[in-house]
Amino acid sequence: MATATLPPVQQLKQPDKGTVGIICLIMAESALFAIFVVAYLFYIGKSLNGPYPKDILEYPIWASICLLSSSATIVMAERALTRHRMGGFKIWWAITILLGAEFLRQTGIEWYRFIHNLHFTVGTNLFGTTFYMLVGLHASHVIVGLIFLLLVFGVTVSGFPIATQERRVKFLSWYWHFVDAVWIVVFTVVYVIGR
Amino acid sequence: MATLDYPLDRPIRRPREWSLSTLFYEWVATVDHKRLGIMYVMSSIVFLVVAGLMATVMRIQLAIPNNHFVAPDTFNRMFTMHGTTMVFLVGMPILAGFANYLVPLMIGTRDMAFPRLNAFGFWIFLFGGLLLYFSYLGGGGLSGAGTAPDVGWFAYSPLTGRAFSRGASTDYWILGILLTGVGSLASAINIIVTTLTMRCPGMTLARMPLFVWMMFLDSYLILVALPPLSACQIMLLADRFLGARFFDTQMGGSAVLWQHFFWFFGHPEVYILIFPGFACVSEIIPVFSRKPIFGRPAMVGAVVAIGFISLGVWAHHMFTVGMTSLSNTFFAASTLIIAIPTGIKLFNWIGTMWGGRIRLATPMLFCLGFLFQFLAAGLTGVMLGVASFDWQLSDSYFVVGHFHFVLVGALLFALFGGMYYWFPKVSGKCLNETLGKWHFWLFAIGFNVTFIPMHFAGFLGMPRRIYTYEAGRGWEIWNLISTIGVPIQIIATALFVANILWTYFKEKEVGDDPWDAWTLEWATTSPPPVYNFEAIPEVRSSRPLWDLKHPEDPDWKYER
Predict the structure, then answer these.
(1) How big, in percent rounded to 5, are the helix, strand and coil portions of chain A?
(2) Most exposed among A73, B397, B428, B461, judged by the fewest C-beta atoms under 10 Å?
(3) Is B1 helix (H, G, I), strand (E, B) or coil?
(4) What number of other Cβ atoms are within 10 A of residue B69's Cβ?
């Protein structure tokens, strides 16, 4: 029989579906953000009328600290989850949510000052256009992230065995890290280079 | 013991019960990649016919000088809807359809990685397309005839601003295409994940069929090139609804920035559209030459090279907007460089045929047509890539002729070849060869009669997108010949549709593997059962079916 001499079939080590999927999603999102970042960089200094960035922008130090440290707390939460310490998971997860919410609150305060007090809107000048669109795109990603974080938190406190979904929690945390990394770019572009 | 018996036992087919609920479960609630693939291809054929009829109207309008067959506004809407439909509602879904149907079969798995995401992608594409067409009713309200978008398929700013585009027609263009973009992204992610994680045992990347390779790289291009389009469409929406100033030149905004952003998507898009053509040809030519593909690694390498270089050539669409000579030089050079991997591919296809026992069946005929016309398309592309030459002919009918040679002469021919080749896989029946040959020859003649004269009209200075023209410029004869080609193409396409219907209802089944092919999709029954494979196949070479059919001389003895 010819079949007797068949060589053994190579068993493949293939990556996990979700891992590749979330990496693809992050690639596509990066491409989306890249265009907005390029638009921001392109229009720096091209506004025909004020206010200009140096007039009104203040460094969002506290907001940045909140968002960046939430990347650390979500790692702590994941670590607690892999060690099946549910109490620790819930606490770290809640802190992550609070830090993300505080970031959004700070953005809200900044935008309230701009829009309500200074009447600086998306249509005021090119700076307004690119500022609100880039920062707003990022903030909308924070909101999406927060919704999913809250979802996980909600099902966990209502007794769902979240430890069975460790993979999916990991993907959510990757998305969260991505949102944080984008903030570093946005911060640099808007608040450092743009001023 | 081989785990794959050939041929397999046919699955039991139950008689069909036709009721609304079975129809719903079979066609609407389905997550089966094969059904979704068929739905993708069928809906894109419908859009192809619609957009083709628009082209017919435009050709009638341009047949003679000073013609008033349609109103100027209608003409503007026609070329906008024709271009938009052909690119986003024909090209993109048909590639998703081919990939959906064939990739899981070719890599020996039972479905895509995310079947529900797959179904979501299809439906969001379909409703995005319907939303675009709804503009005929809703674009200007129901008063009057309604308005469709009339800003051209690349919607140059500032034409799309509130000041110049009143009503909602441009918004329909933005939102419809934004939605189909989400669908394309979903299917691209699905194809990438399926290819990387679900290959059957032994199917290393080196053994993967070229079709899968090219669809994989195509999906990568979609992943990096499509979000920029979504981004600039979001900017345009903000301009139109929030009063943002991205493309508002009176506030310092830049209309050229739109061009950069659009073409950063737009040029990779051309490769996104042509890769599936490459994919079909790379499967068909070897089977009908009875030889394995020539220069397999070079083939993959060439597509990878195109995939990367194509991200750096976009501004060759913009030589006439007045860029710096450094930019002109860079983009001209990168454009010319891309001809090298493309040339490698052409030579490899010819090398595959060289010394082969060529069977001139209909799929192969279409591939041969593809080779000739793709070569012509590539050569005019190289001409247009030279900035100084482009200054003469940009936005002329030469460009129209060039890209129709790419998208019809190359892509559509390859896809027709693919449809003839895989129709027996989908239905169990071979399309009628006589009708197929009539289809090929009529379409090849009609196509060339229509599009070759456009190059000459372009040389004589005829700009694209004009509604009509005066007599005495030497354009009349070329336009008339162009229009004469149209009915020939229509007859050919009608023959194709008739062939499908005739074959589907009247012809006899031809067995699982009518072409004596080598890739895994032919290892299961035709049409495949819902679960594709009874046992997941095992693969030892890049031609697994050759190994099964020729145990005395299998490929794995020679491949690493």
Answers:
(1) 80, 0, 20
(2) B461
(3) coil
(4) 15
Among residues 540-559 of chain B, which lie with CB inside 8 Å of chain A?
A: 540, 551-552, 556
Residue B80 CB neighbour total at 10 angstroms = 23
B127 neighbors B160 (Cβ within 8 angstroms)? no
Assign domain B36-557 to a CATH class: mainly alpha
If you average pLDDT over residues B435-445, what whole number do you get? 97
* Candidates A21, A28, A129; nearest CB to B245: A129
Is position A121 within any domain? yes
Q: What is the pLDDT of residues B160-207, one digit of tens each?
A: 988 888 888 899 999 999 999 999 999 999 999 999 999 999 999 999
CATH of the domain at A167: 1.20.120.80
The residues, ordered by sequence, that sit 6+ positions from B106 with a Cβ below 8 Å of its Cβ are B208, B209, B211, B212, B519, B520, B521
Asked whether residue A77 is assigned to any structural domain, the reply reads yes
At B141 the three-state DSSP class reads strand
Residue type, B252: G
- Predicted confidence (pLDDT) per residue in B221-266, tens digit: 999 999 999 999 999 999 999 999 999 999 999 999 999 999 999 9
Q: Cα(A144)–Cα(B305) distance, rounded to whole angstroms?
A: 36
Q: How far is CA B321 from CA A77, B255, B316, B324, B326, in A?
A: 54, 10, 10, 10, 14
Burial class (CB in 10 A: 0-12, 13-18, 19+), A192: exposed
Give yes or no for a contact between B485 and B446, defined as CB atoms under 8 angstroms apart. yes
Does residue A8 belong to any structural domain of this protein? Answer: no
Task: Give the domain range for residue A193.
Answer: 73-195
Whether A39 and B193 lie within 8 Å, measured CB to CB: no
Helix, strand and coil percent figures for chain B, each rounded to 5: 70, 0, 30
Positive or negative: CA dihedral B506, B511, B512, B517: negative
Q: Which of B197, B218, B538, B539 would you mutate first to test chain A, the one with the most A CBs within 10 A?
A: B197
- For residue A50, what is the nearest residue in chain B, using CA coordinates? B251
Number of structural domains in chain A = 1
CA separation, residue B41 to residues A62, B48, B500 (Å): 53, 10, 13
In chain B, % of residues over pLDDT 70: 95
The span from the CA of B413 to the CA of B393, in Å, is: 26
Output the six-digit token pair for B97.
């359809």
The partner residue sitting opposite A21, judged by closest CB among B114, B199, B201, is B114
Is A4 part of any domain? no
Kindly tell me the burial class for residue B17, based on how many C-beta atoms sit within 10 Å of its own C-beta (0-12, 13-18, 19 or more).
Answer: exposed
pLDDT given at position B8: 53
Distance between CA atoms of residues B481 and B450, nearest Å: 7
Polymer length of chain A: 195
ipTM of the complex: 0.94
* pLDDT value of residue A146: 97
Helix A166-186 with A17-42: angle, nearest 10 deg: 10
B22 pLDDT band, cuts 50/70/90, is: confident
Is A39 within 8 Å of B253 when comparing Cβ atoms?
no
